[in-house]
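Hi C.,

You asked whether I'd gotten around to modeling the 294-residue construct. I have! Everything is below, sequence then structure, no commentary in between.
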Amino acid sequence: MDLVVLKTAVGAKAWRRPLEQAAKQAKTFALEFEDVEPIHRAFAPMVREQKFDVSEMAIVTAIMAFAYEKPLVILPVTLAARFQHHTLIGRAKDRPASPGGLRGHRVAVRAYSQTTGAWVRGILQNDYGVPPDAMTWVTQEGAHVAEYKDPAWVERTDPRHKLTDMLKSGQVDAAVFGMDLPDDQEFAPVIDKPHEAAQAWYARHRLVPVNHLMVVRRDVATNHPNVMRELWGVLESARPKQAGAIDMFPIGVAAIRPAVELLLRYCEQQSLLPRKIRADEIFAEAASFARLTA
């Protein structure tokens, strides 16, 4: 039987090699990896053109794609997660004394819909009492989902402007960084003792902030259910080994639901969605395949 070749975009370092190795044993499909650097450059083409058969995707982008009825199936598998308190940075010399000091100020982020920013805004609103419209959010680009329009408290800047330069020059008072967190003594976290704050947050919520999931083109999933079943088995076997007590790669609907439910509440608060969505809606198609609810 000919293998179904799946054009694949996965940049998560913890997953890439284990997934390559596990997929070699598949009997129904082969993964053909395309390198996209940084991986977030794969998200808009996947949402708008379904450019890949299988793709890593930021969870907020995936939820928005579902809300706007894009032909994608979202798999409950965490490709990347991290605690977010340390990603909100200000100038060391004059950063706000607390997150509350951001009221009335300007905060930069690559895009308002960026997942890291959504988690940070959720923390600011629900833990520190600072809602998103209490600040002006300065962005470099729009959402990966073209239909989405930023709310009134968001403004766009020249995409050639670096967040670090805007922060140093005083154009903004704080900025949210993802994997590109700067190593620069001119900057310091806005949230005091961010790693301790993240531990306390975890103690309250008992979940990890999921950043990236995996999605599959709906036509591929519909036309090749046997491939989907075997792909899920490959993903289970490729799940990265973990040394710590906290599961940073929750997989399966039950395991990932708490993080998704909290993020959906944050998205509602931040005007990121056109309608109210339940977590089980998002994974309904994926759950129709064998063992995906495990």
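If it helps when you're writing up: The chain has eleven helices and eleven strands.

Thanks,
B.
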